[in-house]
Amino acid sequence: MTYISSFLSGLLCSMGFGAGAVLIIFLTSYSGMEQTQAQGINLFFYLPIALFSIIKYKREGLIDFKAALSFIPSGLIGVLIGYALAGFLPTNYLKTVFGLFLLAVGIKELFSKNQ
Amino acid sequence: MRIKKILYALTVGIINSALGAGGGIAAVYALKKNGLDQKTAQATALAVILPLTAVSVVIYLLRGDFRIEEALPFIPLGLVGAFCGTKLMKQSQNKFLRKSFALLMIFAGLRYIFPV
C-alpha cells in the first residue's frame, strides 16, 4: 500500500495535480496519523518530487519562470500569514471555504466549452 | 492589476501553509488567471509552490508536527512516479489536462468539505 500511494502521489504531484490528496488520505486513513503530521510529511515529500519535475519541465520550456518569480514573494508572505493564522483561525472553516471554491471552479471548468 | 496578483499569491501561500496541500491547485488557478495556458500553468505552479513548501516544511518541523524520517520511505517510489508523470505531462494536451484538473478540483473540494 505504501508503494502504491508513494508512486501515485509522485505521479500526480509531478503533473501539477498536487493537493497531495493521495498521500494525506493514505497517511490518515491507513496509517492513522494526525492531520498535521500527515500534512507535514506530504509537504516534505513534495520537495524532491517538485525539484525533479521542475528540472524536467525546464528542458521542455514548460515553465514560465518570470510568472513564477512574480508570485513567489507574496506567496512567501502568505505562508507566514498562514502560519500565524493557524493559531487563531479554525482550519475546518478555511477548509470548507476553500473546498466550496474548488468545487465551484471545478464544475465550471468541467463544463466549459473552449480550449 | 498588481494588487490582484499579490492577493492571489498571498492566498496560495496561506493555503499551502495552513492546509498543507491544495496550494498547488490554487497556484494553477492563479497562474491561469494571469494568462498562462493549462499545461504551462500546471508546470509553473510547481516552481511557485516549491519555495513556499520549503518554508512551510521548516515551520512544521520547528513546530514538531512531524519528523523527516517519517517522510523518507515515500520518496523513492514517489520519484519514480514523478518520472512517469513528467513523461505523461509532455505528451498531454491542454484540453485533457484541463478536464482532468477540473475533476481533481471537484474531488479535492469534496474532500475538504467532507473530510473522511
Walk me through the structure.
The complex is a heterodimer of chains A (115) and B (116). Chain A is mainly alpha-helical. Chain A is 80% helix and 0% strand. Chain A has five helices and no strands. In chain A, α1 packs antiparallel against α2 (21-29) and α2 runs antiparallel to α3 (35-60). The longest helix of chain A has 26 residues, at 35-60. The mean pLDDT of chain A is 82. By secondary structure, chain B is mainly α. Chain B has helices at 2-19, 23-33, 38-63, 68-71, 75-91, 94-113. Chain B is globular and about 40 Å long. The model of chain B has no long low-confidence stretch (mean pLDDT 87). The chains are: A mainly alpha (115), B mainly alpha (116).
Produce the secondary structure layout.
The complex is a heterodimer of chains A (115) and B (116).
Chain A: H1 2-14, H2 21-29, H3 35-60, H4 65-88, H5 91-110
Helix pairs in contact in A: 1-2, 2-3
Chain B: H1 2-19, H2 23-33, H3 38-63, H4 68-71, H5 75-91, H6 94-113
